[in-house]
Amino acid sequence: MADANAISRVVMLGPPGSGKGTQAAFLSESLGVPAISTGDMLRQAVAAGSELGRKVEDIMASGALVDDDTMADVVRERLRQEDAVDGFLLDGYPRTLGQAETLEGILEDAGVQLDAVALIDVPEEELVRRALARKRADDKEDVIRERLRVYSEKTSPLIQHYRDLALLRPVNGHQSMEQVTSDLLSALGAAESGS
Ligand code: ADP
Question: 130, 24 in Cβ contact below 8 A?
């Protein structure tokens, strides 16, 4: 169980290909809270052919964002589950200012708040290079560029939003995976002392 004073409610922010999914999995172990990836949840829904999956399949394949109302239902439901009550690492949510407001509402209703927002910073050309090397089904170059464009238009405003709330913990993502993990842990540790 998560210690009441520890950093336990964290949003992972960063462009597609920044490695935030991998880092969320590592941090999940260290912090003792589940990593929740909305991308993985949606891909599972698509694979299962559920109603949600059928609704989001084409949108995901194009690199666009699923609408905020659909995502609000997905995340509200997930955060209600037992394992997320004491904390979570959110990977891939929020992705718009509207989603950030929804998340604030969900947490407020539960009487809790975010502890930190970890930002993994990586230059755009490095992101394209990584994405082409990775080649997932939705990783065609035009789709990659579209996802980066959507990130810079819709998601990057969250950086200032969380900076204003003094929650932002930026980390250089253009270094080895181990170094990024270690920097994230110290950035979140620094947040713990209330900086
Ligand atoms: P990335 O590799 O870009 O980090 P994810 O695995 O997080 O991608 O998400 C893959 C796709 O799922 C997104 O391009 C988008 O279509 C959809 N998606 C995931 N999370 C969200 C969200 N919070 N809001 C809208 N769409 C989302």
Answer: no
Query: In ligand 1, which atom is closest to the CA atom of 62?
Result: 16
Q: Do you know the residue count of the chain?
A: 195
pLDDT, one tens digit per residue, over 55-75 is: 999 999 999 999 999 999 999
63, 154 contact by CB (below 8 A): no
Q: Is the pLDDT of residue 194 over 60?
A: no
Give Cα separations from 2 to 9, 32, 93, 95, 107 (angstroms). 10, 6, 21, 26, 17
pTM: 0.90
- Residue of 125, 109, 70 whose CA lies nearest to 93: 70
- Ligand 1 proximity of 120 Cβ (cutoff 6 Å): no
Spacing, Cα 86 to ligand 1 middle (Å): 24
Alpha-carbon span 195 to 180, nearest angstrom: 20
Distance from residue 91's CA to the centre of ligand 1 (Å): 9
Distance 66 CA to ligand 1 centre (A): 8
Q: Answer whether 148 contacts ligand 1 (Cβ < 6 A).
A: no
